[in-house]
Amino acid sequence: MKHDAFLMKDLLIENESKIIMLVLDGVGDIHTPESPRTSLELASTPNLDALARVSVLGRHMPISMGITPGSGPAHLALFGYNPTRKEYDAGRGVLESLGIDFDLLPSDVAIRGNFASRDASGFLTDRRAGRIPTSECDRLCGMLQEKVGVLDGVEIIVRPVKDYRFALILRGEGLSPLICETDPQKTGLKPVPPTALDPEASKTEVLLQKLVETYNKILADEPRANTVLLRGISRLPTLESMWSRFGLRPAAIATYPLYRGVAKLVGMELMPMVDTIEEEFRILQENFAGPHNFFFIHIKRTDSYGEDGNQKGKIEVIEEVDRYIPVLRDLNPAVLMVTGDHSTPHVMKSHSWHPVPFMLHGPFCDLDGTEAFNETECDRGRLGIFPTVQIMPLALASAGRLLKFGA
Length: 407
Prior knowledge:
Largest sheet: 8 strands, mixed
Number of helices: 15
Order of helices and strands: HEHHEHHEEHEEEHEHEHEHEHHHEEHEH
CATH superfamily of the largest domain: Alkaline Phosphatase, subunit A
Helix content: 25-40%
Shape: globular
Radius of gyration: 22 Å
């Protein structure tokens, strides 16, 4: 039986229970001869470990064995949507645009852009332009918007997202998202020309080639952000809301627009966007007694440090989050889950296909004798390795929100 058919609405029941899902982005690591202990194993996490001793642990697989997930598909899986279904395909351009509260039209083509650095010969030297600050991104986007508002009869909309990221929206007739990404994913290479993946995208191919060339000229004298990379070229899908699907009134607390975007796509209410982990937990405390019964809290920097190969930084973020675990326990939700969306091993400096540590705490979680929240203990956990899309049924059942199936 397919997962999407499993959660029949006849099984859902309403009660007063509340669920918290804490996601440390990219928290998973791997063991290697050069790095035999993971960030979770090296971090001092007395609160997470105490929680593990009264919880059940395991590891989840966002897509399937060997498949490395992007952030969008990984979060859709966490929220109970099979990310391999075509109708759920939400590209990063859509998610970034929704995350900054931009009102996309169904006909818009949305693109996630990176400001990047290239040398005089056109080879990329930094795919993130030295992680320029958001204030610099604001200035650059304003300059591009001022100089190119319309091209070939198509409205061009540029909006800053965060750091080196921006959203590019094409609004007009006859457009298609079926264009290859221009980011080669490595430095030392030239950006890939925007190329149609289907004949119907030929107009969009020509438009984007002109636009990239124009942007390169405008940015030519910038010290770091002298080119752009286009990723996640996509169009707005329609997804059933978490209220309709699970009977939940969900809220999202996240510091990065992408994660706000995927939350909005599944019908979550977006809490105010803040900048620090401390503020995220404060927002949760202030809103926990309200009408929402599912809270998604997203921690970004575990992933950022993993991608930078900075294990020390990743450990520090884990330790900072650990200090706020008592806040979650004091709120006393019916179900508390701690996990990641995917693994980002610092030794790989990228997302990976490795299973993700997972912990579920609740009155009927069936304790498994695990002693700490890390990869080794999660491998000992009773849940084993299981598909990510099974997290939501598990959470709903643990919160008393699912009836028995059958007589």
